[in-house]
Write a structure and sequence with these properties.
transmembrane, about 0% strand, DUF805 domain-containing protein, membrane, transmembrane helix, mainly alpha
Protein backbone atom coordinates (compact mmCIF):
# COMPACT_ATOMS: atom_id res chain seq x y z
CA UNK A 1 0.00 0.00 0.00
CA UNK A 2 1.38 3.41 -0.93
CA UNK A 3 0.56 6.82 0.54
CA UNK A 4 -2.19 7.65 -1.96
CA UNK A 5 -3.96 4.33 -1.40
CA UNK A 6 -3.64 4.70 2.37
CA UNK A 7 -5.06 8.23 2.39
CA UNK A 8 -7.94 7.19 0.13
CA UNK A 9 -8.68 4.21 2.36
CA UNK A 10 -8.62 6.25 5.56
CA UNK A 11 -10.83 9.01 4.16
CA UNK A 12 -13.25 6.50 2.62
CA UNK A 13 -13.57 4.97 6.11
CA UNK A 14 -13.79 8.47 7.64
CA UNK A 15 -15.39 7.46 10.94
CA UNK A 16 -15.33 3.67 10.68
CA UNK A 17 -14.00 2.26 13.92
CA UNK A 18 -14.68 -1.38 13.05
CA UNK A 19 -12.39 -3.70 11.15
CA UNK A 20 -8.62 -3.77 10.90
CA UNK A 21 -5.94 -1.52 9.38
CA UNK A 22 -2.52 -2.68 8.28
CA UNK A 23 0.63 -0.96 9.47
CA UNK A 24 1.26 0.73 6.14
CA UNK A 25 -2.23 2.26 6.12
CA UNK A 26 -1.70 3.80 9.56
CA UNK A 27 1.86 5.04 9.03
CA UNK A 28 1.29 6.45 5.50
CA UNK A 29 -1.73 8.37 6.77
CA UNK A 30 0.29 9.58 9.76
CA UNK A 31 3.06 10.82 7.42
CA UNK A 32 0.50 12.47 5.11
CA UNK A 33 -1.06 14.28 8.06
CA UNK A 34 2.34 15.49 9.32
CA UNK A 35 3.34 16.74 5.84
CA UNK A 36 0.07 18.64 5.34
CA UNK A 37 0.29 20.11 8.84
CA UNK A 38 3.88 21.23 8.26
CA UNK A 39 3.02 22.76 4.87
CA UNK A 40 0.06 24.64 6.33
CA UNK A 41 2.22 25.95 9.16
CA UNK A 42 4.90 26.97 6.68
CA UNK A 43 2.48 28.66 4.27
CA UNK A 44 0.13 30.29 6.72
CA UNK A 45 2.09 30.35 9.95
CA UNK A 46 0.77 29.28 13.28
CA UNK A 47 -1.20 32.43 14.02
CA UNK A 48 1.72 34.18 15.73
CA UNK A 49 2.84 36.50 12.99
CA UNK A 50 4.59 33.96 10.75
CA UNK A 51 3.61 33.11 7.19
CA UNK A 52 0.86 34.89 5.26
CA UNK A 53 -1.48 35.18 8.27
CA UNK A 54 -4.62 33.39 9.35
CA UNK A 55 -2.73 30.15 9.86
CA UNK A 56 -4.08 29.44 13.30
CA UNK A 57 -7.58 29.10 11.89
CA UNK A 58 -6.49 27.03 8.87
CA UNK A 59 -4.33 24.69 10.97
CA UNK A 60 -7.19 24.28 13.44
CA UNK A 61 -9.62 23.44 10.64
CA UNK A 62 -7.21 20.84 9.23
CA UNK A 63 -6.73 19.30 12.67
CA UNK A 64 -10.48 19.16 13.17
CA UNK A 65 -11.00 17.64 9.70
CA UNK A 66 -8.57 14.77 10.36
CA UNK A 67 -9.48 14.14 14.01
CA UNK A 68 -12.09 11.44 13.37
CA UNK A 69 -10.19 9.62 10.61
CA UNK A 70 -7.03 9.66 12.75
CA UNK A 71 -8.86 8.17 15.71
CA UNK A 72 -10.61 5.64 13.48
CA UNK A 73 -7.43 4.42 11.74
CA UNK A 74 -5.71 4.25 15.14
CA UNK A 75 -8.52 2.09 16.53
CA UNK A 76 -8.48 -0.14 13.44
CA UNK A 77 -4.69 -0.45 13.76
CA UNK A 78 -5.10 -1.60 17.37
CA UNK A 79 -7.75 -4.06 16.20
CA UNK A 80 -5.15 -5.56 13.87
CA UNK A 81 -3.05 -6.55 16.89
CA UNK A 82 -6.20 -7.81 18.66
CA UNK A 83 -6.57 -4.89 21.07
CA UNK A 84 -9.68 -2.81 21.60
CA UNK A 85 -9.69 0.71 20.17
CA UNK A 86 -10.20 2.07 23.67
CA UNK A 87 -6.49 1.49 24.23
CA UNK A 88 -5.97 4.76 22.34
CA UNK A 89 -6.78 6.44 25.66
CA UNK A 90 -3.46 5.20 27.03
CA UNK A 91 -1.96 8.08 25.05
CA UNK A 92 -3.17 10.43 27.79
CA UNK A 93 -0.48 9.02 30.09
CA UNK A 94 2.50 11.32 29.55
CA UNK A 95 5.43 9.79 27.63
CA UNK A 96 4.81 6.15 28.63
CA UNK A 97 1.40 6.06 26.95
CA UNK A 98 2.75 7.40 23.65
CA UNK A 99 5.70 5.01 23.71
CA UNK A 100 3.36 2.05 24.23
CA UNK A 101 1.10 3.24 21.38
CA UNK A 102 4.03 3.70 19.01
CA UNK A 103 5.22 0.18 19.84
CA UNK A 104 1.74 -1.26 19.23
CA UNK A 105 1.27 0.69 15.99
CA UNK A 106 4.61 -0.69 14.74
CA UNK A 107 3.83 -4.28 15.76
CA UNK A 108 2.88 -6.78 13.08
CA UNK A 109 -0.82 -7.65 13.10
CA UNK A 110 -2.20 -11.01 14.12
CA UNK A 111 -2.25 -13.59 11.36
CA UNK A 112 -5.62 -14.71 10.09
CA UNK A 113 -8.99 -13.65 11.41
CA UNK A 114 -9.25 -12.23 14.92
CA UNK A 115 -12.25 -10.96 16.89
CA UNK A 116 -12.21 -7.70 14.90
CA UNK A 117 -12.33 -9.21 11.43
CA UNK A 118 -10.28 -10.82 8.68
CA UNK A 119 -6.59 -10.18 8.16
CA UNK A 120 -6.20 -7.10 5.87
CA UNK A 121 -3.02 -8.58 4.38
CA UNK A 122 -4.81 -11.77 3.35
CA UNK A 123 -7.11 -9.87 0.96
Amino acid sequence: MNMIEAVKTVFSNYATFSGRARRSEYWWFFLFNMIVSALLALLFGNGHGMGMGGGGMINSLWSLAVLLPSLAVGARRLHDIDRAGWWLLIGFIPLIGWLILIYWFATKGTLGTNRFGPDPLAA
